[in-house]
Design goal:
mainly alpha
């Protein structure tokens, strides 16, 4: 439980943490994405292809 007077500080800390994460993680270069996609096409299943992409990149929903 967070005391009411602490809520603005906690929100500020959360926003700072999210901002830092988004600065560190930028979009991957197109060439690198293309290379991984081409390599993953050889895998036997779509699930394996997805795992290969997830190992290489951080995938976030927009």
């Amino acid at each position: 439980m967070i005391p009411q007077r602490e809520i603005p500080r906690v929100i500020h800390e959360i926003l700072n943490a999210v901002h830092e994460l988004t600065e560190v993680r930028k979009e991957a270069p197109e060439g690198e994405v293309f290379q991984v996609l081409m390599e993953s096409r050889r895998l036997s299943s779509v699930q394996d292809q997805l795992r290969a992409l997830q190992k290489r990149f951080l995938i976030v929903a927009r």
